Every structure is written in structure tokens, then in C-alpha cells.
Amino acid sequence: MEFDKAREIFGMYVFDRRAMKERLPQHIFEALMASIEGGQKLDSAMADMVAAAMKEWALSKGATHWTHWFHPRTEMTAEKHMSFMSKDESGMPIESFKGKELIQSEPDASSLPSGGIRSTFEARGYSAWDPSSPAFIMMSKKGGTLCIPSVFISYDGTPLDLKTPLLKAVDAVETRSMRLLKLFGNRGIKWAHVTVGAEQEYFLVDSAVAKNRLDIRYCGRTILGCPPPKGQQMEDHYFGSIPARVLSFMEDVERDLYRLGVVITTRHNEVAPCQFEFAPQFADANLACDQNQQIMDVMRKMARRHDFQLLLHEKPFAGLNGSGKHVNFSIMDSEGRNLLKPSSNHRKNIQFLTFLSALLLGVSKFHSLLRAAIASPGNMHRLGGNEAPPAIMSAYLGSTLTGILEAVEKGLPDDMPAQALIDLGMNKLPSVMADNSDRNRTAPLAFTGNKFEFRAPGAPQSIAGPLTMMLAAWAWGLETVGDMIESRVGEVDALDAALEAIKFAAAESRAFRFEGNAYSPQWHEEAKKRGLTIVNSTPEALALFLLPENRELLSKLHIMTDREVIAYYEIRLEQYIKTVEIEMGVLRTMIWEGILPALSKQILLESSALSALPEDARKEACSWSACIGRLGSLKTSLISASEKLEALREKMHALDTEERAAAITEEGLPLYAQIRQICDTAESLVAGDIWPYPTYTKLLSIS
Question: What angle do CA 635, 640, 645 make, to 5 degrees?
Fold first, then answer.
């Protein structure tokens, strides 16, 4: 798309500050900005004026309906469309949208996950406008819908969404960041905002091929399939020339996202065949979360228009790289300074080290919470392979930053390495150079020069959950470091007090920091010695939410009450169970409707061909007879394993939630692996025109 055209359409479907200023009276606009920036509430009269302006703007763009657009705990978004159209007293049509409708709506909450917070018959739930994220229009072929970003709560006010905890976690970090900035003498700073950019990996496969795979349609991944002769062995797909058909898809996605005010800064081929990536420009954390959902939504719709099937599963194809969502984050102050960017000013560098150390202190103490936050049914297949971060949480800083922290921890020795990085106003430590260390793609959490990158979340996951837990840990670290500095101010200079806090954080986080290859088996042994949390299954990881220290952290920071933490755990555990149960049902169907009949056809074909040979030739065809016998053995083994799977499914009906999760993990997944091995062996022996499902070779070819 031409840049001139992109500028013309950019943000055209967003009720952003520009649109607000054009359509609102000045005093209303200023009151709304005060509400957005300072948390002040709008009175009902002002809300009516904002709603009227928003309605007229939306109608001018072709919208016919409005909705409170919210993030239930399904990892997706939800919406209930309401028409602008109504009738007046004389029965004539009018467009109506009032302030009370803008501020609050009442979607049915009965069938959205709550973790036992409310019963199914308790259907009432409220959505409430979040003015910090601008309203936008999602267009359709015959109109559009005004989407109003909102929080979602139950009848008693308990949050039922992912946005509310995120907003609280963001506030916890930002208020503690402002306190720390003031301790460093930054009196003119008005605000400090968490900024986020989430890289989105995904697969595209031809929809005409994918529709013949029941597992792709219902599970979003292949649950059986032989590896293709050529996968990613040649390492020629990564950053390669983008296929023309895919590039057309990307360009259309970017165009629609421009209209929503979302800038995609990077697009490229990823490692596996048919795998690609989008990376957006950074935005404030809450807006970035909303925009990531918009990106996924636009990608889904555009894929259908281009005859693609979009796969966001963490591991769509066995033996090939899976897809993650790398969440990059930092803090920006009102002067436009990145607080995680080293500086040429020694005072700012101590400030930078303080913010960095506060994060390390928090995540080292609450690393189990980070592991819980990225636990999902699909991520269990991705994490730990030599393609993605391991299931063991650790942080990578690079040798230079690590050397600085070690030097501070030891009391700044005179023999500091010459390549050291931070100018602290002391001869012992030379000046900073940004990006002076290599990136460690094996680390779940890595410092990349001016931000941290959390590489462990899965591709379909909302960034709200992992980001909430990351920010909770950071907020605790900022508060701890802030308390230490404040307690010493008056006795020593703030910079000296900060160095003492950095020294403490460096020592406390030493076990969590790892500079080596986190894929290596040696790291697992080393992590055990360091006392790091190591869990491999999703149920084990989700149970980490329930650790007393994690519950206490979220409760004390007012991010989640103890009741909400338990509910969040139960929701995610139920999602794990239901996901695997669906996969079990799909697997059984694919076996009995496709694979077993294919084996029978192949046996009949081979037996008939063997019988047609002359008798002497049949006597010499021992290997042929053995092949037929092997096909028969495979069918017998598959029937037996399938019956065991069905028995397990029946058994689980009588178990409670945690028992079902344990049965799935301990019995179901090994049985799954056994069945897949049989099916994949059968695929390698059955003729292509008999095998009932498109193979990996067909799926991973874009025409």
C-alpha cells in the first residue's frame, strides 16, 4: 500500500483524541481527557454528550450497531450488538445512543467462564466503558459495529474478564514507578506508562485442504500426521521471500489495521513452512492488549477471504516449530524517555539499573507465577522443545549487564572489565553502549537493549493474563526497592541508596539469571540446584497460582482477591480439560471414520494383488506378506488403543475437576502419543489415494 494512501485511511475507524476534539465541545473534551488520564468520573450530562458525538461519528462511518467489547476469560473477546435504531412515540425511526448505555451495559453472563463465582442461573453481568482505550468500528460487508472497549463484572462486582486485573496491574506498576522517579528527583514528570508490543506468530494453510482435516477444524492443530520429507531442515523459510499469496493477505491485514490505528512495523516468514509473523508498534499496555485482539480478529477474517485457514495454535504440526507471542514491554515517562534504556547520563543510568533490578527482584521471587500465567493446553506441546523457551523461567541480561550487576554486588571492584556498560559517574564503570550483547532466544525473559521480551506466552493467548502477572511481580519489586531507597534518603544520597538497593536485588535474583543455553539438559540440572520451579504439565503449572505467596501478592496489590485467583485457576484448568476432551473425541472419530477403513482397503488391495501373482511368485513374496501382516497388526493395535481411550473418556465422567485433569495428563497423554505413533506408521504404509486425510506435505504447500 502506498504511504500516502495509508496516511489517508489511518485511524479512520477509531474514535481517538483527534475525532473527539473535532466533535466534542472544548470543555467536554477536556473533562473526558481528565477522565482518561486522571481517573476522574464523567457526570451523566457529560456522558450523554460524549455518547451523542460518538453515535454521530459512528453513523457517519456506516455503523448500524454498537457493542460493549470485552475480554472474558476465554482468551478471546465478546460482544452483544445493539442497534442504534429505535422508534419514537409516533412510530418513526430514530437513532438513539445515550450516556447510560455508553457507560454501562448488561450482557448475559450465564455462559461465560466464572470459575464458580456465579451459578449458571445467575445470568446478570455488567460491562462498563473503559475510556482509556478508544472506541472503534469493525466493518462488515453491510455496515459496521461501534465497539466500545469495556470491563466485564458479575452482579456483585467481581471481575469476570481479563482487562480488569490488567488495568489494576498496570496501575500498580505506574504508581510505584512515579514514586521511584520522584525519589530520583524527577519533579516534572507527570506520568509513567507501561508500553507493550506483542509479536504475533501464526500459520497459514490452504482452506480447501484444511477443511478435510477434522482436527484442524475443531482443534486448531493436527493431532496426527507423518512429518513431511522436507520440513524446516534446510532453514530456508526463515526471513525468506514471502509467497505472493501470503503477501497479499498481509497487505490486506495491514490496510484494515491502519484503519483501526494499528501499525504493523514488521512482517516476515518464520522458521517453519507456512509460518509467519506480524509485529506491531508499541502502545500503552491496555491499548496494546486490545490491539492484539484486533490483530487476531482481522487476521481470522482476512484469512477466510484469501482462502486460507489461520492457525494460532501453539503447536499445529508435530516436528515443526510452534508459534508464540513474544510480549515486549518497558516503561515510558511523560518526557518521552524509555526507563529501560541506558543513558549517557550517570544519574539516569543508576535510575535505569534501579528499574531493571526491581523487575529482576520481582520475577525472581514470583517466577512460579509467570510459569502459571503461560500454562495452556497448547503451550504444553511447545514449551521445552528446542524452538521455544523452556518451561523453566529464567532471565537473560547479556554478559555486560550481568558483569555490572556482579560488580555492584561485590562493591564495585577496581578490576572491572573494560567492556562494562553503565556510566554511574564512577571511574570503575565505563560508559553504556546499547545492544552490546547478543540476544538469547532460549531465555523465557530476555533484556534486549531497551526493553524486556517475555517469549513464553502462546500464540492464541491474550497478552492480558501473562502481562498482569509480570506487572504484579514488577510492582512488588518496585515497591521493595522504593522502600529501601526511601528509608536511606536523608542518611545518604539517593544515588548511593539506589546502589544499595541494586546490590540487594542483584544478590537476590542471581539464581534466576542465566546466560547460557536454556535448551540444554544441563540447564535443567542447574535449575534444580538453584531451587527454581520446574513443572512440565499444564495442571501442575496452573496449580502454582494457588501458592500462598502468589495469592498474597495479587491480593495485597489489589489486582485479584483470593477468591478471584482461585476462580481464575479453576477456569484455566477447566479449559485444559475441555480442550483435551474435544481432541480425544476428534481423534476417535478420525480413527473409526477414516484410518481403520483405510487400513482395511489397503489390506484388501495388497491381498488381492498378492493373490493375483503366480504361485511360485507368491512363495517368494515373503516381504509382501509381512507387509500385509504388519498392516493387520497396526489395525488390531489401533482398535485396542482406541478402546482404551474410549474407556478413559467414560471413566472421567465420574471424576472431579482435578482428578480429571490428572487422568488426562497421566493416562490420556501417553495413550495419545501411542495412538499417534500407530496412526503415523499406518500413514507411511497406506497409498496416498486411500489415506483419508490431507498429509503434512499437502498442508504445508501454499499454491
Answer: 120
